Amino acid sequence: MLRCFPIPYSSRLHSHLRPQKSLHWKPRHESKLTRPELLDRISRLLILGRHHALKNLNFDFSDNLLDSVLLKLKLHPTSCLNFFKLASKQPNFRPSVKSYCKLVHILSRVRMYNETRSYLNELIGLCKNNYSSFIVWDELVRAYKEFAFSPTVFDMLLKAYAEKGMTKYALHVFDNMGKCGFVPSLRSCNSLLSSLVRKGQSYTAVLVYDQVDRLGIVPDVFTCSIMVNAYCKEGRVGRAMEFVKEMENLGYELNVVTYNSLIDGCVSLGDMEQAKKVLILMGERGILRNKVTFTLLIKGYCRQRKFEEAEKVLREMEKEEGVVLDEYAYGVLIDGYCRVSKMDDAIRVRDELLNVGLKMNLFICNSLINGYCKNGRVCEAERLLTAMGNWDLKPDSYSYSTLVDGYCREGLTSKAFNVCNLMLQVGIEPNVVTYNTLIKGLCRVSAFEDALNLWHLMLKRGVSLNEVSYCTLLDGLFKMGDFPRALSLWNDILARGFGRSTYAFNTVINGLCKMKKMAEAEEIFSRMKDLGCKADAITYRTLSDGYCRLGKVEEAFKVKEIMEKEAISLSIELYNSLIYGLFKSRKTSEVMVLLSEMCIKGLSPNVVTYGTLIAGWCDEDRLDKAFSAYFDMIEKGFAPNVIICSKIVSSLYRLGRIDEANMLLQKMVDFDVFLDHGSFDRFQKADGRYVDSQKIADTLDESAKSFSLPNRVVYNIALAGLCKSGKIDDARNLFSGLLLRGFNPDNFTYCTLIHGLSASGNVNEAFFLRDEMMKRGLVPNIVTYNALMNGLCKSGNLDRAWRLFNKLHSKGLNANVITYNILIDAYCKNGNTREALDLRNKMLKEGISPSIVTCSALIYGFCKQGDVEKSIKLLDEMTEVFVDQNLATFLKLVEGYIKQGDVKKISKLHNMMQVTYHSASVISHKQMELDVFSNAKKILDLDSCIMSQAVSC
């Protein structure tokens, strides 16, 4: 019998069939997933391609999560890329540098190079400073070690940096690749070398190439072309030629690009003979010349102003098989003509370009605009700019800025501003160059306050100012004599980091020298050296010129010695300045020595040299030497300019050689008002000086056509010359004749005649001219009234002169030191020293410093009265005030004459000064005094007083 036992299987089966917790068949809520679970879930969905399911997962993107997924899926590049893209689209999250570095390694491993390059470029774009850029390398190296992938990405980074011109970072990658045992590819090296040369770092490119060679990287033809270009940019064309031969010996077949680089290097050095040799070498190698070859040759010849040769190359280009003559070749020739203001030739070539069916381009238009502006034909430049629309061309910033500069050069600043307004209307914002041009233009026409207002407008508009902006305004402030504001701006320039700019220092030193503040200029020069800013030839030349203008030629020669010690080349401009300084210091015996030294150094005199020599010898009354310098200038091929010829004419008038002066003036312009045509017969006499004048006249037949000297200037020269030589009647007759011809006299004309008439004692006619002058709407200035008062005093009408003096204020004029000296001298000669002293005190109250002429008149007055004590006191005052070394002889002589009681000699000295003094309306009083007293001892030894030289008008 079967026994029944309770079987527990049912309960166990039931238990077995119940769902168990450990099976996890029901998903847990997503928010409760642990970090490993979430990472696992994301990875699984990405591999399965279920990207949409990621939206159901509740998580926030973070650097840690993204890096973890990339690490986990490093062998699944597509999944990594998809997740990275998803992360990049999040509004509040951006992948870090580390994540980018991991991704590019993952993509490059499976040769997804396009994607790798794309994300490398994004990574480079994220680097906003040096630290971030260099950290990229460190993170890439870290990811490389973590993944143990190939180093391909490093090479791609090197190429990316090079192509973007980020040579600093490219070099960092290049150096560190070698340290890590990685060798860059040839393509990346070529990119780096090319970028360095393009950025002007040719020397670095040469060093990199040496490293490439040491790494065993075999160059190709592209490498050779790049390196030839690098050597040429360094100015090492000889080395470039050697390099070409080395490469050809190694079996490289170099192409036309390489040889074009060689030609470009020769052109840059101005060595067209070497360029021709390269051209011959190309023919020997069977390398066909292309349009770049010909265009470079045209460019080279244009730089040397060999335009016939340049046009020959253009004609060869037309005949060369396989070479198409294009707008650029024509454009280079047109630009060459424009740069030397040969606009007729430029237009001719432009017409030829249009006739052969080629079109104008922006480069050609800008060249023509620049040429017109340089030639003073600004209206034609503006018409061309307007006509550019006919060729479907739009003027750019350069077009407008060039036109602005053209108007500024002509002094038409209002039209320049109109061009700026036009720029704004067409949507081109004036840049800093445009503003700098406007400031310079305003300063050129002495509109300094307007320049300052424009400066403040630039600041208000947020224009990024550069050192040219600052230096242009600084130069303007110096020209207006505003030393305090110039000093303030200079301190601002230093504060803005331009303390190492030689250009900035040269500007301030030049300004101080022009203001005759040599002590301050020396201080700035010292500070320049302290700040580590290297002085150049311009710096030293500026200092030397400053000393020469003050007559301190010894100091100027010390500057020259410093330049020679520092191996700085001495320029012709420096020698011209020194020659001027020697003449000014009356050390004429050293002039020829300096000229000889200049020639030994291989420097040839230019037109400025000859102009300085001619002016100097004319001032010394050595017309024989002046004529000799003139003829030497003509032989050397220099055309005489209007300044040189005017100087000679003025000197002839001053020395009483009127017929010769008239003849030269007639050659300069149509000047036949009163010339005695029979006087030409007199030039045939044996007198050598007439012969020289006739020779000079013969040289002016052609060159004078280019003078464009206004007739008013010529007539004023003639009138002043006649007055200075004492021919007042001739001057008056000439003036009457000129008026009949429609001559429109100016202030200078009347001042010259009034001065001449007053000095000759014809005061009534001088006043008549004053009235006539006012009827013409010309306002007499203080120089005119000084001449009238001087005439009144000389004719004994001291009371009338005094009344005229008291009326000056009502005429809107202020008396100057010359005005006071006229009256003081007159009172002293009349024995009225009390009135003379009162006038001197009045001068002091009005802030007018007495000159040496003032003191001399008073000394003479008191000596005449026998008041030696007062004379000695005045002499002591002079000694304290006038410390110039040129006056030392004068002061000692006067002191001796006072002690001896020799009034006669003191009278001679004083009368000599007064004769010279009458030229004060033409030249500066201070300059006149220095000229007189530098030779005081020599003059006083003469029995009669000699009139000092008057400067040319």
UniProtKB/TrEMBL annotation:
Instruction: Spell out the family assignment given in the record's similarity comment.
Output: Belongs to the PPR family. P subfamily.
Identify this protein by name: Pentacotripeptide-repeat region of PRORP domain-containing protein
* Species name: Manihot esculenta (Cassava)
Q: Which UniProt keywords apply?
A: Repeat
Question: Which Gene3D superfamilies is this protein grouped with?
Answer: Tetratricopeptide repeat domain (1.25.40.10)
Q: Please name the Pfam families in this protein's record.
A: PPR (PF01535), PPR_1 (PF12854), PPR_2 (PF13041), PPR_3 (PF13812)
PPR repeats span which residues?
150-184, 185-219, 220-254, 255-289, 290-324, 326-360, 361-395, 396-430, 431-465, 466-500, 501-535, 536-570, 571-605, 606-640, 711-745, 746-780, 781-815, 816-850, 851-881
Entry-linked PANTHER family? OS03G0856100 PROTEIN, PENTACOTRIPEPTIDE-REPEAT REGION OF PRORP DOMAIN-CONTAINING PROTEIN
